[in-house]
Amino acid sequence: MGGDGHAACRYGWWQVGANALNNAGLALVGPLAFWPFGSGLMLLWGLAAAVPVIIHLWNRRQYREVRWAAMEYLLAAVRKNARRIRLEQLLLLAIRVLILLLLALALADPLLSGLPAWSARLGGAARTHYVLVIDGSYSMDYRAGGTSLFETARERAAQLVQDGRQGDGFTLLLMADPPQVIIRDPAFDPQDVLEELAALELPHGGANLGSTLAEVESIVDGAARRQPELTRTRVYFLTDLGATTWNDVAGEEVRARIGRLADKAALTLIPLDSPADENLAVVQLSAGDSLVTAADLQGVRAEVQNFGSRDARGVPVRFFVDERPVDEQTVDVPAGGRATAAFSHRFDSPGEHVIEARLAEDALPLDNSRWLSLPVRESLRVLCVAGKNQAARHVAYALQPLESERPAIRAEVQPESALLETDLHQYDCVFLCNVGRFGSDEAAVLHDYVSSGGGLIVMLGDQVQADSYNRQLGGQESDLRVLPARLGPLVDDAQHALDPLDYRHPVVAPFRDHERTGLLTTPVWTYIQLTPQEGSARVALAFDNGDPALVEEQIGRGRCLLLATAGSTDSLNQRQTPPTPWTALASWPSFVPLVQEMLRVAVSGRDGQRNVLVGEPLSDEVHGQVAGSSLEMAAPRWPDQPVGGAAPERIALEVDGQESRWVYAATQESGVYVARYAGRLDATRMYGVNLDPRESSLERFDAELLPSQFQGTSDAPPDAARGSSPGRSASLFRYVLAALLMLLVSESLLGWWWGAAAA
Questions:
Q1: Range of lowest pLDDT (51-55, 170-174, 216-220)
Q2: Helix 733-758 vs helix 82-108: angle between axes, to the nearest 10 degrees?
């Protein structure tokens, strides 16, 4: 459904060639080029009209004059009727030449333009171009009596096709976002159109009225150029008049498009039965963490919205994990409001898991389910790079305070050499603790790691060389920037406290109403002044003088957090006598939860975008040697088939060094998509594709507010509303053919009559 349908393909290839030949024929006929023809090349057959003339002239030159006494008497008799015979022969010659000219003219299909009213009175000669526009927003899945509005729209469209006359052309368009052209060039075989209608499926997205009108106008203009024999154009909109789509008619641009289209075609609206204004939908499904370990007790929340005008009480919400029911709760949802259902779950094993929240069946079943893809790991692996001895010990302890066989976080402390000697992609996050300087190779490795989804947390200290950070990691000498801020001078003028900035950032949001953790009382005596990069960098924490203390930014698919002070008590300010620590942060009660929250935010892009809305592309990257590997994507068969039950589609991997990327854009249906890697990389990843809840509102647009260019309703007969479209032409083929037949009969009768008289 994403492009022209099979019927368009069937007619499109030869139509292009025919149009080119028509143009060539019109150019060759010279004086007749001003007259429009359906098949201008056929005029070349008019050259055959010269054949009788050539034969006539040839015969006059072929005889030899021989004197014969007996013929003298006969010629004397003939001379008495010579003028009459000569006129009879010339008349027969003219009729025969005209027959051949009319034959060529009939084959060229002459058109009468500029007189639409007169041509409409010529009887059955008018042929109509029908543009069928079916609403593809998922509110069309509303079912009244077991039949959806979309199925009703297909039936009504099929009836329009069956009621058409021979020679009418049909194009088919699905009003979606973006619109989907099923048949672009007019199809003249009704059976082909009916087959396309029967195969048409409802996507699970919304609709864009403006883009649809632009596509319809393009189709109408194209048909007017390529099929001028279609003298009328009618556009039918089969829709539920959902307000989320049709509210756009209030915009000036949409009204202008409707006005231009109405000058070229008759616009007919077919409103479908009005659904009841009552609907419940799962509009949000979320987990506490984006990356979960098998040891975690994970909280899951589902939000249910009532789009109706009456309170809904005792609404059951069922939760499924990997298609197995795990919990059920009931909620009361006020009219026009929301309610939350929540449960907790501990996963038995690491791997790919899917959570589903499901409501009871109602008249709009599509929005009763929502999915959440949640990859579960055995544990998070974190690499702590120490710029000097003991610089990372506090961070490692905050990440893994207790020894355990199955820790939620595994922290490893390594020296600076690990940046080049270790594959960073095996870690979920990298902490740089008081690392002094970087080379270009190390900068490239860090940029590759972060842009592919890794988390990077940089804590400064007394070893840090600000110029090296700015040159190599700050983007001054290359485009390989990973730092969210530029490093400035050392600040050690006084003791400073931390400002959470109203707890707006996700790192500090959990500290709200927990002042006893000590975040606000953490003493900082020395830090490096930071200047956030322009763009998406955000300040999560500040000092009491307004300077940024913690800056965060998304780099590619990963995130980097930069702390302006040290993550260890071992960093000393040598400019003071005696040397004093930079900060007491590492020994303060708030340090452990702050490090854990920084880690949670940093790793949020590690597994890519696992949950998207319908129409948004899925994409991912794979690191490592995957030569010979392939990827197959199994789309859902909603709602009766199991996860990944559809036939898989092979996707090409774009290999760039050690990275393999792919993009899958065919997400027109909601559900769970399963990506399976083969070859050397034997892995499976799951993705949740969910509905945009805006379309769950069944509010209808008031048809009385539609522009006046829309005429008629579902009961209007195909040709009742408007005659020929402006600027179109009527075909004269039948009339030329009738004149040709009359000339053939006349030539035969005259030849017989005059021949008999001569005898």
A1: 51-55
A2: 160
Tell me: do 358 and 498 sit in the same domain: no
In a domain, 366, yes or no: yes
Strand partners, 315: 331
Together in a domain, 440 and 341: no
- For residue 401, give both structure tokens: 């305070």
End-to-end Cα distance, the chain? 73
Tokens at 148, concatenated: 């959806």
Does residue 8 fall inside a structural domain?
no
pLDDT tens-place string over residues 651-694:
878 877 667 788 899 999 999 999 888 765 567 889 999 999 99
| DSSP β-bridge partners for residue 429 | 382, 455
Exposure string of 146-184, with b = 16+ CB inside 10 Å and e = fewer, is eebbbebbbebbbebbeebeeebbbbbbbbbbebbbbbb
Whole-structure pTM value: 0.72
> How far is CA 27 from each of CA 18, 450, 579, rounded to the nearest angstrom?
14, 62, 94
Residues 176 and 137 sit within 8 Å (Cβ to Cβ): yes
Is-contact 667 636, C-beta < 8 A? Answer: no
CB atoms within 10 A of CB 378: 15
Contacts of 94 (CB under 8 A, 6+ apart): none
571: domain CATH number? 3.40.50.880
